[in-house]
Design a protein that fits this description.
With 106 residues, the protein is mostly helical. The chain has one domain: Cytochrome Bc1 Complex, Chain D, domain 2 (Orthogonal Bundle). Helices cover 63% and strands 0% of the residues. Helix 3 crosses helix 7 and helix 6 packs across helix 7. The chain is globular. Bound molecules: heme C. The site of heme C has 22 residues, from helix 3, helix 6 and helix 7.
């Protein structure tokens, strides 16, 4: 537990050095560096790799009906062609990036 909290704090401090990123929360930075290439900045996956992989847009009813817990599960353990992130990101980072992803629907 202590170890993970440490990583989160470091990530938060790193994000804090960039004012805009910090304003959007820690999830924005993670999303931009790890998720955006497939899900796109708007979450619509409308071009590039996301389109090629047929990633569902965030507006898709199947995506909208997923709970935050289900999405965290999908990112942790992988879903379809999306690789599992549990060895690459901490649980806190996954949660932050998922909540940022969910905020894109608004
Ligand atoms: C290599 C491309 C790729 C990357 C990078 C990627 N994803 Fe995905 N993601 C996919 C694919 C493919 C699916 C499953 C197919 C689909 O959308 O139907 C998926 C599914 C999801 C889902 C389930 C809802 C949905 O759209 O089907 C969530 C939530 C999600 N990804 C979040 C993330 C987050 C958060 C990250 C960054 C930590 C991330 N993804 C990185 C390709 C990617």
């Amino acid at each position: 537990m202590k170890f993970k909290t440490g990583i989160t704090l470091v990530a938060l401090m790193a994000a804090g050095t960039m004012t805009t990123a910090f304003a959007q929360g820690p999830g924005a930075e993670i999303y931009k560096s790890k998720c955006q290439m497939c899900h796109s900045a708007t979450g619509m996956a409308e071009f590039g790799m996301g389109k090629a992989m047929k990633v569902k847009p965030i507006s898709d009813p199947a995506v909208k009906k997923m709970t935050e817990a289900q999405m965290i599960e999908a990112v942790r353990n992988g879903m379809g062609k999306m690789q599992p992130y549990k060895d690459k990101l901490t649980d806190a980072q996954i949660k932050d990036s998922v909540s940022y992803f969910r905020s894109l629907t608004k």
